[in-house]
Design brief:
This protein is of the alpha+beta class. Helix content is 28%, strand content 19%. The chain has 17 helices and 26 strands. The strands form seven sheets. Strands 1, 2, 5, 17, 18, 19, 22 and 23 form an eight-stranded mixed beta sheet that branches. The two termini are 65 Å apart. The N terminus is likely disordered.
């Protein structure tokens, strides 16, 4: 949820809210499950007991009442709750509604009735609370009754992010926001990789690799490195789901586990201690040379500083684009997300519109500090159903200003912000804490996150992604400049061919799925037409309104390329009566030879000695292709061309690049 902070930071707004939030409040945009912090049965954690709560009434006398200014002990929780809600809650709520909720909360708590002892003096937050005090008087456990009344006031608005906490719940919440609750482990995260390509099912080539080694963790001390291939973990050989670790038993704190990894083709073993570990809020790395990857786990008080440090390192390393991973990020401090958005937006741009019952506050960018200007770097933001509140603020701020393509699935949809306030007694004792919804928010263009933010490109980002595979896939899916499809190996002649064709725009719009090339898939005839025309003419043809081929719909963007291919005399189609092109049929290797010979006007050649081309009408074209050095066939001994075999997309890219770069 969004939390507004009392930190001493530069102002990023044109209107300041006044007097609604005390200096001890922490305002936030974050989503933490309310059940984890607001349903603790430990209602008496640090709140004191009934004793000393007020002067007891004589038996049979009118119940005693006192003003909140004189409240002591447990009644300070009731008065503090009322004060926080009436002063800060985003909507105007009549006192009778708060009071009615308090009385109902006590009645529904099912507490045992009071015996013969007199009830302590109940503090009245407002005259309307007489029935609530009467309900508290009527039960024996005053402390439990007050907590029930106070919690009920928070819950009465039907807002799961508006709740009261005991002292332990409050302290746990603050700890989680500042770096997450520790878990017992060794300090690594894993993802699946096939070399440098994303993959999603364990196989001989798709293997679990270390995605991140947490700073200061046992794994870091032991010497584990990012991208190490995990061979075994505590004797468990990866298999099945969950990165192959579904059958792994939990580690016991204080134990030592054996980790066997493969690094640079050699296996290495490590003995790693098991101890409490925290997941860093920020991680960054360069991927495939040109892409910077930044993971934000939450928007803690120092996340902006940590991210700026990682961003500076990536920019200094010369990355050309950025992927910001906000998956499962529940949010954090309002000022933090404003500071982070300011790193990527131009000065005076609106980051967020904060709408309260008092005013609308516009928070603006105020510069990039000493960083190279990252507002010129193309970006992708990765989101999913766990991306909430502050994550959604950053997402809308970057998208509304045209700074980022959003990829993933619909976000959580939290459009409110809260303050987190300590609740203390008059003597300074921490009684608990409260989270109060104080505003609703809109993006720069007035868009609400209610119902979730729909991505620009929908892509399932669940599963065991490694940062290398994720960053490559998302950067390619967004069409960022100079980025190759994620399923292309990053070396070899095939890589060089795809790189050259990508840089020249030949492959634009012809991916098989967002960010993928599908190198092993057969290439259809329509795609060959698009690639050949772009290479031969150096540009796309003008759209057409009709086609000479009965089976080519002029509404397809590539219909013009098929027409142009026919005009150039490179194809006559696949049938003449009626004239058809068979656009979805795969191109055989023999057909590919004919396409390339006609397109590049290859010289004739004497028979080259292929065992399997004698009966093919494409034999002369195959021989010409061989003589030009574009292919050596599919087998050397015996010498074969495999004319009826489908041409793959990767083979066509390689042959096309060889053909256009052949020596004259």
């Amino acid at each position: 949820m969004l939390r507004t902070g009392a930190e001493n930071r530069p102002t990023r707004q044109i209107v300041r809210s006044t007097g609604r939030i005390g200096a001890a409040a922490l305002a936030a945009l974050v989503l933490w499950p309310a059940v984890a912090v607001a349903q603790d049965s430990d209602s008496g954690d640090g709140t004191g007991s009934d004793a000393g709560a007020g002067a007891e009434s004589e038996a049979g006398a009118e119940p005693e009442r006192t003003a909140c200014s004189d409240a002591v002990g447990i009644f300070e929780v009731l008065c503090g709750s009322y004060g926080l809600l009436t002063e800060n809650y985003v909507d105007d709520v009549p006192d009778e509604d708060w009071a009615s909720a308090a009385a109902r909360g006590v009645r529904e708590a099912g507490l045992a009735p009071r015996g013969d002892d007199a009830a302590p003096a109940c503090a009245l937050p407002a005259p309307e609370f007489e029935q609530a005090c009467a309900a508290i008087d009527a039960v024996g456990d005053t402390e439990a009754a007050v907590w029930a009344a106070s919690r009920a006031m928070f819950a009465s608005r039907g807002d799961p992010n508006n709740f009261l906490m005991t002292r332990s719940e409050y302290e746990a919440l603050l700890s989680r926001r500042e770096g997450g609750a520790p878990y017992t482990g060794i300090g690594i995260s894993l993802g699946l990789l096939d070399g440098t390509k994303p993959c999603h099912a364990l196989s001989e080539s798709c293997r679990p690799a270390v995605a991140e080694v947490f700073a200061g963790s046992p794994a870091e001390r032991a010497g584990l490195l990012a991208d190490d291939i995990v061979v075994s973990l505590d004797g468990h050989v990866p298999s099945g789901p969950q990165c192959g670790l579904g059958g792994l038993s939990p580690f016991e704190q204080g134990s030592v586990v054996s980790v066997v990894v493969e690094r640079n083709g050699r296996q290495r073993s490590f003995a790693v201690d098991v101890e409490p570990v925290r997941i860093p809020t920020v991680d960054g790395r360069a991927v495939a040379g040109s892409t910077g990857y930044l993971r934000l786990d939450s928007f803690g008080a120092r996340t902006d500083e940590l991210l700026e440090r990682e961003l500076r390192s990536l920019l200094d390393a010369g990355v050309d684009n950025l992927v910001v991973d906000l998956r499962d990020n529940p949010g954090g401090y309002l000022q933090t997300v404003i500071n982070i958005a300011s790193l990527f937006l131009d000065d005076r741009y609106v980051v967020i519109q904060e709408v309260s019952r008092v005013e609308t506050v516009l928070h603006l960018v105020s510069g990039h500090g000493s960083l190279p200007n990252p507002s010129v770097v193309p970006m992708v933001v990765a989101v999913d159903g766990g991306s909430a509140s502050a994550s959604e603020v950053l997402t809308l701020a970057l998208r509304d200003h045209g700074r980022a393509t959003v990829i993933g699935t619909t976000t959580y949809g939290k459009n409110t912000g809260q303050i987190t306030q300590a609740m203390q007694s008059s003597d300074g004792t921490l009684l608990g804490g409260a989270q109060v919804t104080v505003f609703r928010w809109l993006g720069p263009d007035g868009t609400s996150a209610a119902g979730g933010i729909e991505p620009d490109i929908e892509l399932d980002l669940s599963g065991c992604w490694h940062p290398i595979g994720l960053a490559r896939r998302l950067a390619a899916a967004a069409g960022l400049p100079g980025v190759l499809p994620a399923d292309i190996d990053l070396d070899g002649e095939r890589y060089d061919a795809v790189r050259a064709l990508t840089d020249d725009g030949v492959l634009a719009g012809t991916e098989c799925a967002p960010g993928l090339f599908c190198p092993g898939d057969p290439i259809p005839r329509w795609l060959v037409a698009a690639w050949l025309v772009r290479v031969v003419d150096g540009q796309d043809p003008e759209p057409v309104s009709s086609s000479r081929f009965d089976d080519v719909d002029a509404g397809h963007w590539w219909a013009a390329h098929v027409e142009r291919l026919a005009e150039l005399g490179i194809t006559a189609g696949c049938a003449s009566e009626p004239a058809e092109y068979c656009p979805d049929d795969p191109v055989t290797r023999a057909q590919m030879a004919t396409f390339l010979r006609r397109a590049f006007v290859l010289d004739s050649a004497i028979p080259q000695g292929f065992d399997d081309t004698g009966d093919s009408v494409h034999e002369a074209d195959i021989d010409a292709l061989f003589r030009a050095g574009i292919t050596g066939g599919c087998s050397i001994e015996p010498m074969r061309f495999c004319p009826q075999q489908d041409t793959t997309r990767a083979q066509m890219a390689l042959f096309l690049e060889r053909a256009r770069n052949r020596p004259n």
